[in-house]
Structure formats: C-alpha cells, structure tokens
Amino acid sequence: MSLVDAVISTGGSAVDDVVDRDSEKADEQAVEEFAGWVFDRFLGAMETLSIHIGSDFGLYDALRGAPATAAELAARTGIDRRYAREWLEQQATAGILDVDVERGGDGVGPGFRLPAAQAEVLTDRASLGYSAPLADMFAAVALRMPDLTDAYRSGRGIPWSAFGAAVRDAQGDINRPWFENVLAKALASVPRVHDVLSRPDAGIADVACGHGWSTIGLARAYPDAIVDGFDIDAPAIEAAHEHAAGLENVTFSELRGEQLADEGHDRYDAAFVFEALHDMPDPVAVLSSIRRAVRSDGVVVVMDEAVAETFSPPGDATERAMYGYSLLICLPDSMSTPDSVATGTVMRHATLERYAIEAGFSAVSILPIDGFAAFRFYLLER
Q: What would the pLDDT profile of 232-243 be if each residue is shown by its tens digit?
C-alpha cells in the first residue's frame, strides 16, 4: 500500500504518524553521546574478557615481579606464543601492562611488566582490592546466555548449580578478603552484637555460607564460639571444609535455611545470613526458622547489598551493579524454584523488613557498619 492509499484508507492518520515520528527525532548530540556510552560498555566488556583470559591462564601470576616477552610468557604458562604476543600488546594498549622496550632481546618484540597496583588487584587474593574474580564471573555468566534467553521467554529459572564452578568460585574469592580481614573489626564495633558473640561457648549459625569464608571469619574472630556453616550447594560445602582445615571450632553441613530450627529451638546465640537472603525462594520461611533456632536474647544479622532505599533512577554504581547481578544470576537462580517470591539482588530495606515481620520479628534496623564493600548489615529485632 502506498502512502497515498494509506492516507485515503485511514483518514489522514498515516501522514500524522509520519509527522509525529519526525517531531520525535532525537537530538544529534544526545544520540552521539549515548552511542559513545554504549561503545564504552562494549569496550569494557571486551577488556573484562581479556582480564579473564589473564586470570584463567595464570598470565598475571606469571608476570608478577617477573617481566616477560611474549616468548618468555608462553614458555612460563604453556600458552601459544602468537596468542601471548597479542594478549600482551592488548593489555598494554588497555593500560594494564607497561612496556619494557629494553627487554626485547628475543627478536619478537618488547618485554612487558605488570605494575604493582595492577598486580595487587589481579593476583593478590588477600587484598580488599582483588577484582579478577569479577572478570571470571562475567565470562562464566556470558556462557549461559542461551539459557538466560530461554528463561526470559519461558519464565523458568537457572539454578545456581547450573552456572558452574567458575561462578561459585568467583563469588567465594571476591568476598574472601572482606570476611578474612574486615569482618571481625566490623562486628566488634557493634557492642550489642559483639557481646553476644563473645559469650563462652556461643553457638553461631552461618546460613547459606557458600565457600565458608564468612564462617571462618567468625570462627577466627571468636575462638571460644562454635560456628556452624550451612549451605544447600554440596560443592561449596566441600570447598568450605578444605578452606577451614585445621580450624577446630567450625563445622559445615548441607542444610536448607528453612530447616535450621529442625536442628533444635533456641540452639544458637546468633545467626547470620551473608549476601544470600535475596537469592532464597522463600525468605520468610528461612527467617522464621532462624528466629526459632536463635535464643530470645541472641542476635540475628543479615548482610545484603547496600542498595538505595527506593527505586530512584538513574542509580549509582552499586545500584547498577546489583541490577546487573540480578538480571543475569540472582533472579534466574531464585526463579528456578517453583512458587519463589523472586526477590532479586536489589532487596531494599522495606522488602527485608516485610519479610522479617512476616517471619515473626518486630523490626529491622541498620547496624552502624560502613565501608564494608557494597554491603549493609541489618539487625532483625525480636
């Protein structure tokens, strides 16, 4: 049908549509700026995958304190020499590596050096700045895009186990330095919590402990306590056992949070849920079980994402990151369970308080713990 025919058959509405579309034409500068914004994200994604290559093959570890040419890096790590040269050049172009021209004595190009700051961020697993696991997680999630596409169409989910060891390990590795280096000081700064944890033979439950670094951090901070870590992911519990080798006041078991009270009412002085409640399909049932398992004079603490109080776009970096996690990992994981409440990563204070009140708590208060990565600590009041 021609435009003239369309005008005749619609009483002129086709012309009106053309005029309306023309009047909505975007400002050229705004288009150019947003196109640049998209390109910056594309560039960041490509370079994130290049960091994953360096992390996965141990290339950064091989360069730490030992500059190398492409031939030397290939020999140290067992990767192909031509790929080694391309990766080294790309890393230098991205500003990650420095070029050491004087080391180019093997006839195939210069040497490359990993600066100290980059070395800490990409190789030091004890540093609070350690960030290589973010790239590893991004790469692992990218492999699940066909599954995510199916989930978005069908309304089904993708269970945590389906994301594989790479995501599980990355999650544990990125939180490890915070639990090992900062958790003890953070909890000690809150007398109401610290005093309970310092009781002789205090019983502490760490629900959804993952790789167990939070459980280990609690056990080391409070050596007179008995700390039990629980998770439903068998490989995570196995890893937790390995990480806690030699630590005598820790146990790990496979157990759902909803089953904690089945182990005994008033059994614990304290219970924690570190960055996991938003993933749970039935958080009210979990919190209800925790409330019954913890003594009335004990404490229940939930650490979750430090998102804004309300949905108020555009968001800050934390808000944006958490929505990214939610789209790609946490919401699909939660929706893999039938009848899930499907919270998603962005669990706001009001949502947590609603869950807590439905579980029998009276209120939720924010603990005065600041600067603990992108997390916030909540105390669930009796």
A: 999 999 999 999
pLDDT at position 123 over 60? yes
Residues 38-45: contacts with CB under 8 Å, at least 24 apart: 45/138
CATH number for 213: 3.40.50.150
Locate 196 and state its tokens.
Answer: 């309970």
Q: Which tokens sit at 22?
A: 């023309």
* pLDDT value of position 26: 82
CA 282-288-289 angle, to 5 degrees, is 95
Q: Take residue 153 and report the two structure tokens written for it.
A: 């169409």
Q: What is the pLDDT of residues 129-164, one digit of tens each?
A: 999 999 999 999 999 999 999 999 999 999 999 999
Nearest 5°: the CA angle 149, 150, 156 is 120
Domain housing 231: 145-381
Residue owning tokens 């890096």: 73
Please indicate, yes or no, if residue 93 is contained in any of the structural domains.
no
